Amino acid sequence: MDFNKLADLLYPNVNKDINYYFRKYPSRPLLKNAVVTRFAPSPTGYLHLGGLYQCVLHEMLTKEPTSVFYLRLEDTDQKREIQEAGDLLYKTLLDFDIEPNEGYRGDLPEKGIYGPYIQSKRLEIYHTFAKYLVSIGGAYPCFCNKLEDKEDIIAKREQQIEENNDTIDHDCCRDLSIDEIEEKISLGKPFALRLLSTGNPQKPLEFDDLIKGKRQIRENGKDIVLIKSNGVPVYSFAHAIDDTLMNTTIIVRGEDWFQSVASHIELFQKLGFNLIKYAHTPTICKIEDGKKRKLSKRKDKEANCIYFLEDGYPIVAVKEYLLNLLNSDFEDWRKKNPKVYYKEFEFKLEKIVSGNPIFDFQKLNDVSKEYIANLNKEEVYNQLLSWAKKYDLEFAEILEKNRDYSLNVLNIERENEKPRKDIFKWSMVKEYYNYMFFNFENINLNFDTVTKIDNELLYKILHTYIILFEENLDKTTWFDRVKKLADNNGFCSDNKQYKQDPSKYHGNISSFCNLIRYAFTGKTNTPDLFSICQVLGKDELYNRLKIIKSKINE
RNA sequence: GGCCUCAUAGUCGAAUGGUUAAGACACCACUCUUUCACAGUGGGAAUUCCGAGUUCGAAUCUCGGUGAGGCUACCA
Fold it and tell me: Which CATH class is domain A288-373?
């Protein structure tokens, strides 16, 4: 067969050769430990948690300053493509503080000399390489009718399983003569381009995965489709060409691709490309009815990274949680270095466990609490405010108008030796500190739930409490006064004494404090009472007492 | 159906043929405390999926089961 003739027949309009592109996209000047990685999502929706998981991995891999992390859009499946999804993907990455240093940038012009970084704009390149592959006898046209959708394919597969026939018969066009091909082309018949595989699936093949380690796989034997009949390449083909021309040095992708490695190796070899290292990552799963399954875009809110943004999880906390899934010794490191930036952690690809982890909200919450507890008040304020500006304008306004006050609220029990671990997402702050930020009149009070003393005594206690309270007291003096006040009003400040005969008292010191807490906050659980009173200030306590009085008398 | 991958407590996982199988989250109890969703101490929780084999010795190596996930597309 005259392959050059065949190549001209199939791709008459291609007038460049592959060397043109190798000249256009030169190799990169990289220092010794530098790597080039890429995130290459399909624009089929929002950023998936699994995508963020991979991006965290990219961040850890490309810390070396001359390393490159670029973003490429793999929009070769028009059926599943969603408008604006690419832009959304890019913006979500930015929201997570991940800025690729090259590639696709949504509305902005793309960055870097290896573009276009959108595959649908690279058709001429793919066709040039396709023509080359045909001209050296590595690929052939297939005129078979294509199966239209997934259901057809599954039906056909099941039928073939029943017939004990393992492979779908794709080779029907393999042996067409050049005359037959010419005739079909002249009739305007569309064709898909297939790899002419010369592999032997019985023969073992050594493969070294950066995550999974050395594996024995088998050679490819399938004539996989390279270019669909609409002229658009399939992932495998686009991947081989793009990652070669863009000089990728490590290909990070989901482990579903692991099966395809043999065919990709054959493709690279036929094209005369150097092989690139692969790192196949586990898939984040979920348990439902006792069964493990992939996180689903439709069913699981946590599959959507935007959910974490909206709910106000600090982005670093989400990333640290994912990093924990990637390298489980991260948390030991974090414990030893509570304030160090996560990128300082020494990440190891080979430490990624190859089982599929299950996403665990409780663990995420804990990581997040730990993270927030280690921030100072300005950091907390700034992150909370920038969240509120996007998702809760009313609250943002309050925070901005009362900056110093807000800082004081957020600083309660923060400068302790062991800071309080309570908040794990910004959306909970408003409710958690509602008594600090919002009009006290709107807070419901029902003293029956906390005490049985009469209103007159209650008022007297609260009033005296304010008189005794000074903002600049030290805590022990304050507490001594509170104890005295309790004793003078039928409560007992000594727990042992109280336990001997509880019926002699209205309650112990703890119920006494709880009474005060409830009166001024409307809550039975709050951070340190003394700190709260300090931040509120004596005037505000008086103000609240007035409101309490009017509520009692209603 | 074929092929591939994985399997240690509810979850994430450490332990590279050699103590009583780490640690974290979650759970429970106790202590401290003005409350707590804080802190401290302790606890329960694992016949390392099952069964054989190799070995003085197996979570670890081998074989066979079982279970789960994936691939088997002109989807990525």
Answer: mainly alpha
